[in-house]
What we know:
Distance between the termini: 37 Å
Strand order of the largest sheet: 1-2-3-4-5
Radius of gyration: 14 Å
Shape: globular
Helix content: 25-40%
Largest sheet: 5 strands, mixed
Structural class: alpha+beta
Order of helices and strands: EEEHHHEEH
Number of helices: 4
Strand content: 25-35%
Amino acid sequence: xxxxxxxxxxxxxxxxxxxxxxxxxxxxxxxxxxxxxxxxxxxxxxxxxxxxxxxxxxxxxxxxxxxxxxxxxxxxxxxxxxxxxxxxxxxxxxxxxxxxxxxxxx
Length: 106
């Protein structure tokens, strides 16, 4: 499933207490080393996108939140097959993800 230019989601599975999303990343467009160096900022940007209304990311983070799971975004290089993980802990998701409007918690 293509999620953006040069990014194709190739799988999703449970590893321990984390949901792992595997994404094949075009190394012609993206640099895995840069992603690895800025993984904390990238994790925050994913949460911000979900909170801004991205429906797919929002659903994924909501699933993590209610299941008390972390999320690992595993970027796999298209040429080298090398990977880097961007990990977002369950705690980061619980504190960083807004409660969806359709959930009534008072």
